[in-house]
Amino acid sequence: MLKKSRQRAHFNEVWESMRLHLLRFCTERDAEDLHRFRVQVKKIKALLVILQGPEARKRLAPLQAIFKHAGNIRSTQIYLQLLRRYQPAHLNRQRQLEQMEQAASRLFCMKYDAYVHILDRLYKTCSRHFRKIDDELVLRYYDQQRKKLRRFFADTRRSAAKLHKSRKRIKKMLYLHALLSNKLRKKVGLDTAAFDRLQDAIGRWHDVAAAAILLKKEGDGEKTLSRLQTQVRKRHRDIFSITADFNNEWR
């Protein structure tokens, strides 16, 4: 049995971490804190939809709006990081992006008090909807997710978009696993290290693919683009070499 008290305790831990990274970003303007804020929001959204049902999506609409606002800034930060790494000579474009990121961050943090007020109200709402969950429901969830992943990785017509979606599915499985009791974890039988290695491999492939798209968009650096495209293909192969050893994990 997945008790309400255990769910709420884990939820509180993730929620407080989210609040802390939001505060740090708006006081220190560290891009990593904005990234961590968004990671914690993703955990909250995933966990509540799994634990409280699809109706949780409607309750989380105010949090989704803040997440989206932060995402606009994060996209600029990532674009700037890629440009600095792969197109260091594009100083004018870098300065332009820096100014955009700084202006967007100021606007976001001007809303900090309003956002905290929204989060405080939302916390009270979300914390009321936890319910006891039978072990069978948890086991059924993992069985369903494993079957979906097995079908996807067995299909030779896999799309890049669905590969990224599969990474999200794996991360949700890991998020939920973190709050399970040791007894329930044994029943689930998830090799978290293996799944984490797989989602990390997909993430590395996605990062290089995004860099290649950026470089192509900027319109020069053909040699660098060629090297990146070679890396994209290699990292894509790495993903499926990992899944080839996943026979036990798909059961």
Q: Please, could you describe this protein's structure?
A:
The chain folds into 2 domains: 133 residues; 118 residues, no CATH class. The chain is mainly α. α4 packs antiparallel against α5, α7 packs antiparallel against α8 and α8 packs antiparallel against α10. The protein is flat, with a radius of gyration of 20 Å. It is built from 11 helices and no strands.
What structural keywords apply?
251 residues; mainly alpha; 2 domains; 82% helix; flat
Task: Sum this structure up briefly.
By secondary structure, this protein is mainly alpha-helical.
Quick one: how many beta strands?
0
Give the percentage of residues in beta strands.
under 5%
Give the domain tally: 2
Number of helices: 11
The Cα radius of gyration reads 20 Å
Overall helicity: over 70%
Write down the overall geometry.
flat
Mean pLDDT: 91
Low-confidence stretches: none
Biggest sheet statistics: none
**Spatial separation of the terminal alpha carbons:** 22 Å
Task: Specify the structural class.
Answer: mainly alpha
Write down the secondary-structure element order. HHHHHHHHHHH
